[in-house]
Each structure stands twice: as C-alpha cells, then as structure tokens.
C-alpha cells in the first residue's frame, strides 16, 4: 500500500541489477551525457550487436568518438574483434586517419552479421570516395548492393549513381558516344533522305542499293526488301515514313535475336578471346578489362598470343592502362603453358575474371585449332565449365570478310559471342545485321573508338535507333 511512496528506482540501479536491457542503456545514454559513452557501448553489448546501426548514429550525433575508445576492449571481449575493429575504425576515421580506419573496417567487412558487414563496406566506400579512388569505392558498394538495409536504400542508390557518373558508367555519356560512332553508317545509309516520299518501285530499288552498300549483305537485304514489299501491299502503305517505321521494327526484331548478356556469373569466369591480327583484339581486351574492373571485378590477363613479342608487349600496355595484372611467357612459349600459369595465379589471388588473349593467325588454321583446343582443355580441367565466354573479335570495316572469318573460327571452336570493333570507323555498320542474320551468334560488345572507354554492350534497339537518327541541323 505504500507502493506509491516508493522512489522509482534509478535507471542505473535497475541496470546494475539486470544489465541485459539494451533499450534502458540507450535511454541512460540519451539522459546522462557523462554516462553516454559507457551506456552507448553497453547498448551494443547487451543487444548482442543488434543495435549497431542505432549505436553508430548516436556516437555520431553525440560526437563521443574519443570518449568511447576506453570501452572498446569490452566490446572485443563480449562481441569479438570484428565489432571492436569497426568501432575503432569510426574513431580513427573521425581522427582523420583514413588508411587506418579503412583497414579496421576491412576486418569487419566479411562479418556474418549483415549490418556490420554492410556498414563496414559502406564506410570503406565513403573513405575511398573521399580519397577519389572511385573504382574501389564502387567495388565496395557493389559487394553489398544485395544487402542494403531499408533505411539506407535511398542514400545508397544516390552514392552508387554518383560513382557511376564519376566512372563514366552512366548511360547518357556512353549512349551519346555510341550514336556518334554510328555517324558514318548513318550517313551512308541516308535513311532520312527517304522520308516524305511516295512508295514506288524506285524507292524499293534505292533502299535495296543503300542496304547492300552498308554491308547488310545480299541475302539479308533481299529478305528485308521482300518483307517491306509484302507489308506495303498488305497494308496499302503509300508513305515512305510508314515504310521506314516498318523497316526499323523489322531490324529491331532481327537483331533482338542477337542480344546476349556477358556470362561472368561464375567466380572465376574465364573469357577466351579469338580473332585475326589487326581486328582490335588487344584493344578490346584492354577496354573490357578496364570496364570489368570499374564494375568491381578483380581481372587478370593471360598473354596467350605468344607468337609475336609485339603482341605480348601490346597486351602489357593495355594491362597497365586498365590497371590489371598480366601473366605472360617468352615469345614462342606454348600458349597453354601461359594459360596454366595464369590459372595458378588466379587460384592464388582469388581473382574474379581471367581474360585470355590468343594468337590471330587464321591462315594456319590447323595449328590455331590445336592451340585453342589445348588452351580450352587446360582451362576446363582447372575450372570445370569454363571458359564461360569464347569471344570472337571482328573488325566492322572488313565487311563481308568478317562473316567468312567468323565461319572459319566456328569450325575451330564454338563461339559464344562477338565483339565487333571499329563501328565508328566504318560506313559498313550494316555488317552488324548481316552477322546477326547469317551467323546467329550473339553480338555482345561493340567498339566505337580507340579510347579505353570506347566499348559498349551491344543494344539492338540503340543500334537501330542510331541508324535512323535524324542529324540535328
Ligand atoms: N576507330 C577504332 N579503332 C580501333 C577500335 N578497336 C581497335 N582499334 C584500332 O585498331 C588497331 C588494331 O588494334 P589491336 O588491338 O592492336 O588489334 P589486334 O587484333 O590486337 O592486332 P594485333 O596487335 O596485330 O594482334 C589499333 O590501332 C586500335 O587502336 C575501335 O573500336 N575503333
């Protein structure tokens, strides 16, 4: 009955009796500034790490970075090294020791605790961003993009978008350069000159001539013109604008069969790169390596074209530019031996992607076939199911010759995708349609210039729109 006189026990007394009340430690931290450092650490300890996100926010809002330091050994004792390192990382980052802070976060980044792992990577990314090491910042974000807590989603997306902009990965910049790269073909086709005309026999004949000149290939051109004639008759089309829309739709439908995503889902993934000398193989490997690295992958190159010292040196230059490792042998070394060494290196370092350059001498087909089969055998033995991609590099300038090269390589080995280079340098960009329609091999990448960023995933819709784009006056 005298209960109403009993003094409410103080928070501290309650916690002395039963410290396993994390919410109450949090309340004490908010109530008593002097007690805040110890109370906030006890909040973390007695929530068994669950309130990490809240605790971190409080440490920052109370600005008690230095004050929590004496209590961190207790965190290590109760929760382990990963939690203690993470908190020490926060203290060091506050002191401006970014390198030390990053190393401390690194201890916690692979923690089983998803919040601790997320926050560690997130803070590593923010430190790299501060230091303008954007590719590594992006890699750290990529590692955690599947496990972003709800309350971080928006902030995470903004940070990722900013890094993509800085790394030139954003669609807009790349799309513009792609359309510029198609200018020569677009001008040669001159489809805009067909606008506003009557649909008559001369129109079909002119269109047929333009498509063949753009290297669409005779068979594919005839297939397209027949299709347009039939549809024009069936739908009683009188205006050339409608006919051009039909052609655009048909080309998109044709090319959509050649759309293929790059298969690098396994770790490690091996990409075997084929192609005759001069088509842009080494350049494409260099561009691809850089882009994959910027996407956060650890990439290593194997100089499998040992026939010429120049090829090895050239690949070294590109490895340097892309900032990736290269494994090479002496000129004349057995390519399979170089690939074997590269595989041992990948195993030792745990790389994500191995890109293998190969010789480009098609005139000695038997020897090339033996070399490639041996390389594939070595790869498949060490990494079952690999190579994931067998990428054939073709030069868009070589027109129909590229088709015969592709046919020759298909006799040597299966080809999973095509990288079509120098689309920017040719008026014969119609070869894309011929390759797709004749060879039925996915076109995965297109080269649109000599610079390292001039490589892009092939997007059929984008390509066709680029052919029809009306030049701004
Ligand atoms: N304009 C343009 N030039 C390119 C492109 N890709 C490669 N090149 C150029 O084509 C030339 C040959 O490129 P490489 O990468 O050396 O070709 P490769 O197949 O390795 O030839 P080898 O070195 O003889 O084995 C170089 O001058 C490149 O800069 C591209 O997409 N556009």
TrEMBL record:
GTP binds at residues 275-282, 357-361, 421-424. It is a peripheral membrane protein. SMART domains: AAA, SRP54, SRP54_N. Pfam families: SRP54, SRP54_N. SUPFAM superfamilies: Domain of the SRP/SRP receptor G-proteins, P-loop containing nucleoside triphosphate hydrolases. It comes from the Bacteria. Belongs to the GTP-binding SRP family. FtsY subfamily. This is Signal recognition particle receptor FtsY. The gene is ftsY.
């Amino acid at each position: 009955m005298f209960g109403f006189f009993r003094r409410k026990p103080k928070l501290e007394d309650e916690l002395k009796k039963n410290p396993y009340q994390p919410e109450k430690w949090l309340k004490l931290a908010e109530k008593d500034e002097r007690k805040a450092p110890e109370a906030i650490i006890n909040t973390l300890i007695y929530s068994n790490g669950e309130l990490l996100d809240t605790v971190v926010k409080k440490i920052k809002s109370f600005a008690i970075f230095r004050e929590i330091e004496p209590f961190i050994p207790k965190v290590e004792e109760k929760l382990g090294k990963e939690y203690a390192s993470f908190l020490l990382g926060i203290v060091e980052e506050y002191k401006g020791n970014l390198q030390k802070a990053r190393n401390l976060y690194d201890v916690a980044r692979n923690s089983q605790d998803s919040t601790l792992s997320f926050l560690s990577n997130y803070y590593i990314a923010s430190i790299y961003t501060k230091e303008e090491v954007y590719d590594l910042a992006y890699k750290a974000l990529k590692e955690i993009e599947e496990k972003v807590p709800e309350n971080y989603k928006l902030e995470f997306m903004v940070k990722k978008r900013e890094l993509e902009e800085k790394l030139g990965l954003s669609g807009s910049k790349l799309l513009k350069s792609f359309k510029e790269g198609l200018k020569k073909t677009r001008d040669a086709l001159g489809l805009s000159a067909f606008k506003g005309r009557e649909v008559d026999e001369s129109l079909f004949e002119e269109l047929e001539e333009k498509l063949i000149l753009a290297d669409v290939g005779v068979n594919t051109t005839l297939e397209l013109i027949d299709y347009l004639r039939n549809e024009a008759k069936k739908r009683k089309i009188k205006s050339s604008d409608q006919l051009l829309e039909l052609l655009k739709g048909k080309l998109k439908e044709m090319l959509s069969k050649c759309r293929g995503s790059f298969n690098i889902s396994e770790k490690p993934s091996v990409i075997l790169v084929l192609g005759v000398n001069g088509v842009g193989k080494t350049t494409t490997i260099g561009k691809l390596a850089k882009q994959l690295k910027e996407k956060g992958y650890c990439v290593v190159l194997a100089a499998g074209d040992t026939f010429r010292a120049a090829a090895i040196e050239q690949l070294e230059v590109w490895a340097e530019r892309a900032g990736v490792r290269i494994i090479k042998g002496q000129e004349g070394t057995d390519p399979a031996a170089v690939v074997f060494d590269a595989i041992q290196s990948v195993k030792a370092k745990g790389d994500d992607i191995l890109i293998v350059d190969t010789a480009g001498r098609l005139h000695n087909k038997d020897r090339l076939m033996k070399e490639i089969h041996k390389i594939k055998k070595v790869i498949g033995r060490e990494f079952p199911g690999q190579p994931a991609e067998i990428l054939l590099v073709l030069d868009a300038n070589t027109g129909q010759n590229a088709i015969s090269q592709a046919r020759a390589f298909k006799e040597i080995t299966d080809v999973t995708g095509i990288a079509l280079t120098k689309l920017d340098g040719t008026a014969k960009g119609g070869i894309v349609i011929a390759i797709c329609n004749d060879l039925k091999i996915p076109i995965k990448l297109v080269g649109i210039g000599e610079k390292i960023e001039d490589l892009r995933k092939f997007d059929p819709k984008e390509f066709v729109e680029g052919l029809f784009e009306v030049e701004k006056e």
